């Protein structure tokens, strides 16, 4: 097993060998760059559980793209997570929480649903990359937090690497990337942005660059 390799495919293969495909999962937004990680994983196993958090605020294009990738990549275990009706009724009854408190909106619609299943797996793959935002510039390939491992096999890829990979493998792109959306989340909180700084199109007007799913590791825990 080669955990020191910068090659994403080798990192994924080594991780699957170490944890086993039943003990490792991936959370995917089925957004602008999601196809790269999903394609790489599918080359090794189409049975790795893929979780999509349906916030009920996604673009219709994202839902359609998810269906396209499931068919194109042969993904056999895609699971949908939803916010609970109680959380929505108690904390966002009007559906407009994102306008005043986007952190709380993300907690209700993204973080809480994932918490319910996070402990069921020993490790999680993510598609985060260092170039995407200043908050990710020092992203490590392996992070250990909350009793589990978070694996970022694409951490070292550049924007050009991503684009070239998609082109070389003739993979379908999210339709909204052709409309100037380099980073795609929930519809109310996503705008077109410069490809060189994709996260500026998210949560415009707020000092927020992350939804909170990928919380900062505890400094007392190990990062390699």
Provide structural commentary.
The protein is an alpha/beta fold and 224 residues long. The protein has one domain: 3-Layer(aba) Sandwich (Rossmann fold). Helix content is 33%, strand content 10%. It has 7 helices and 6 strands. A 6-stranded mixed β-sheet has the order 3-2-1-4-6-5, sandwiched between helices. Strand 1, helix 2 (34-44) and strand 2 form a beta-alpha-beta unit. The longest helix is centred in the middle third of the chain and has 17 residues, at 102-118. 35% of the residues are buried.
List keywords for this structure.
alpha/beta; disordered C terminus; 6-stranded mixed sheet; Rossmann fold; 224 residues; globular
What is the strand and helix layout of this fold?
Layout: H1 8-19, E1 24-27, H2 34-44, E2 50-53, H3 60-73, E3 78-81, H4 85-91, H5 97-100, H6 102-118, E4 123-125, E5 142-145, E6 148-151, H7 159-168
Parallel strand pairs: 1-2, 1-4, 2-3, 4-6
Antiparallel strand pairs: 5-6
Number of domain units: 1
* Shape by Cα distribution: globular
Overall residue-averaged pLDDT value? 87
Radius of gyration: 17 Å
Could you give the count of β-strands? 6
From N to C, what is the helix and strand string? HEHEHEHHHEEEH
In terms of DSSP E residues, the strand content is 5-15%
* Top-tier CATH class: Alpha Beta
Q: Low-confidence parts lasting 5 or more residues at pLDDT below 50?
A: 216-224
Would you identify the CATH architecture? 3-Layer(aba) Sandwich
């Amino acid at each position: 097993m080669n955990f020191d390799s910068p090659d994403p495919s080798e990192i994924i293969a080594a991780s699957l060998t170490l944890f086993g495909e039943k003990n490792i999962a991936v959370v995917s937004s089925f957004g602008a760059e999601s196809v790269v990680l999903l394609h790489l994983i599918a080359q090794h196993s189409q049975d790795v559980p893929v979780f999509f958090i349906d916030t009920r605020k996604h673009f219709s294009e994202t839902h359609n793209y998810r269906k396209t990738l499931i068919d194109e990549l042969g993904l056999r275990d895609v699971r949908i997570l939803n916010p609970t009706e109680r959380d929505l009724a108690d904390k966002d009854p009007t559906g407009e929480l994102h306008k005043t408190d986007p952190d709380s909106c993300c907690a209700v619609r993204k973080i809480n649903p994932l918490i319910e299943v996070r402990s069921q797996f020993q490790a999680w793959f993510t598609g985060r990359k260092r170039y995407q935002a200043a908050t990710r510039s020092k992203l490590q390939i392996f992070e250990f937090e909350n009793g589990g491992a978070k694996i970022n096999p694409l951490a070292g890829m550049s924007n050009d690497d991503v684009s070239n990979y998609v082109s070389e493998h003739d993979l379908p792109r999210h339709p909204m990337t052709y409309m100037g959306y380099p980073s795609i989340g929930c519809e109310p909180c996503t705008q077109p942005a410069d490809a060189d700084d994709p996260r500026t199109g998210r949560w415009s007007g707020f000092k927020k660059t992350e939804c909170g799913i990928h919380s900062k590791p505890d400094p007392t825990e190990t990062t390699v």
